[in-house]
Write a sequence for this structure.
């Protein structure tokens, strides 16, 4: 058996001014999970360590925490995989306030979920008693996302949430996907409109951390891409994100390279005066630091090849 140091985040905001780490020496046995190890430390060394757990089998979602800086589900993670130079550092989930040790206040996570009306809204006008069946193909569209156990690991490690606490976050966007793609729901367009607003589906920065951290098949980033696809197909284009995509396609499809002078005003809208004024400070800073793109935009040498790709893609789409 190897000895491992568990460096555990401790903090009781009611009695302490600042957090600290406490070390526990632990004899590692093969095959134990992080949750098994914490339970052993708590029962044999220190009964005051606070953390959440319930099912012990990756179903309830309550034991998410950070190990060596990344969110994991403690009951699904082998302790042996976490040891680094004889140490494992355990912290509470990020992007939420600590209540006690590894227990965080999950209200921002639940509050975000509530914003997307996470329940089925079928059309019940003609026959409220009707059984709403789905084909296997229809169910497969939402199969992956129904595996979400609402553990909050993705919310904890989302980079966009670190800079914008109002961003809906990966789990909420995945939950929205589950109803946007559900053949029995009747509010697809409203859902797409709502989710395309500021702090919504276009504010994800594609860092992929949510999908890397997710312990299920939900993989939020893939779901976010599918929502964007659905929004573009449904013609929900009146927002910065969709205009950005369209502008990107227009300039690359025409000249073979991105026209960085065209893209910002195209994204905020050419007649959106406050939006355009909001771009000015960045533009001036770029100019002062010599980072501004050339005023005259040139096509690349083999632009006809690029145009061919775009026209083939259009044919394929049709
Ligand atoms: S890919 Fe998007 S939603 Fe996922 S963690 Fe990164 S910024 Fe957040
Ligand atoms: S999407 Fe994955 S990481 Fe996020 S809450 Fe659901 S199961 Fe947890
Ligand atoms: S204890 Fe239920 S998911 Fe880990």
């Amino acid at each position: 058996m190897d000895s491992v140091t568990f460096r555990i985040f401790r903090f009781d905001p009611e009695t302490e001014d600042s957090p600290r780490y406490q070390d526990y020496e632990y004899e590692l046995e093969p095959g134990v999970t992080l949750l098994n190890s914490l339970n052993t430390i708590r029962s044999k060394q220190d009964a005051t360590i606070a953390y959440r757990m319930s099912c012990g089998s990756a179903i309830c979602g309550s034991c998410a925490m950070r190990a060596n800086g990344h969110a994991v589900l403690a009951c699904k993670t082998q302790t042996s995989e976490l040891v680094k130079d004889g140490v494992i550092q355990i912290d509470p989930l990020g992007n939420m306030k600590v209540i006690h040790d590894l227990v965080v206040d999950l209200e921002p996570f639940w509050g975000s979920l509530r914003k997307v009306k996470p329940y089925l809204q079928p059309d019940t006008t003609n026959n409220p008693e009707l059984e709403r069946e789905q084909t296997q193909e229809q169910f497969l569209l939402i199969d992956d996302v129904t595996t979400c156990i609402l553990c909050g690991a993705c919310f904890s490690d989302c980079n966009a949430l670190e800079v914008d606490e109002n961003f809906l976050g990966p789990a909420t966007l995945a939950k929205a996907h589950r109803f946007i793609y559900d053949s029995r729901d009747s509010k697809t367009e409203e859902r797409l409109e709502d989710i395309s607003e500021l702090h919504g589906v276009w504010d994800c920065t594609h860092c992929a951390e949510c999908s890397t951290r997710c312990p299920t098949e939900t993989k939020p980033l893939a779901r976010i891409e599918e929502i964007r696809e659905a929004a573009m197909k449904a013609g929900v284009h009146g927002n910065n994100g969709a205009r950005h995509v369209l502008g990107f396609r227009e300039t690359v499809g025409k000249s073979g390279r991105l026209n960085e002078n065209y893209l910002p005003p195209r994204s905020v809208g050419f007649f959106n005066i406050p939006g355009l004024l909001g771009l000015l400070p960045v533009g001036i800073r770029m100019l002062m630091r010599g980072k501004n793109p050339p005023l005259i935009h040139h096509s690349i040498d083999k632009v006809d090849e690029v145009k061919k790709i775009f026209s083939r893609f259009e044919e394929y789409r049709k």
About this structure: The pocket of iron/sulfur cluster (ligand 2) is lined by residues 148-154, 170-171, 174, 213-216, 218, 220 (CB under 6 Å). The domain at 2-103 is CATH 3.10.20.30 (Ubiquitin-like (UB roll)). The chain has three domains: 2-103, 107-233, 240-317.
